[in-house]
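In pairs, describe these two lines:
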Amino acid sequence: MTELPKVVKEIVEILASTNNSAAAVMALYGDLGAGKTTFTQELGKQLGVSETVTSPTFVVMKHYQTDRLERFTDLIHIDAYRIESIDEMRVLGFADLLKQKGTIICIEWADKISDLLPQDTFHLRFEHQSEGRRLSLNNDHAE
């Protein structure tokens, strides 16, 4: 995690080189304080989001415009921690968000809505370790 800006840049490049017809989805897993929101804040910074990216714990979802118009124009930040039923995602228009070209969707606590995640979701696991934090990426459909 000490190289977070470099890692985020590499992930954005991977996302930009893949699926161009729908939203790019990143499922974020890890304990409280493992770095999920910090990752999303760095992502917003690199995408040129002018607002402060904050955790959407109580509002569930936040939408940010980017200035990175060549590929990604929107960043959607979802915190599924408070989701009790995947039916709650319908109210957010989640199915429509998944179809939005030029959008990156970051979902904290994605395990709560795993049945709704598209096949090409990128799964990022954040872990506490004695020397800091660790981030691993998997784009298979398993966390």
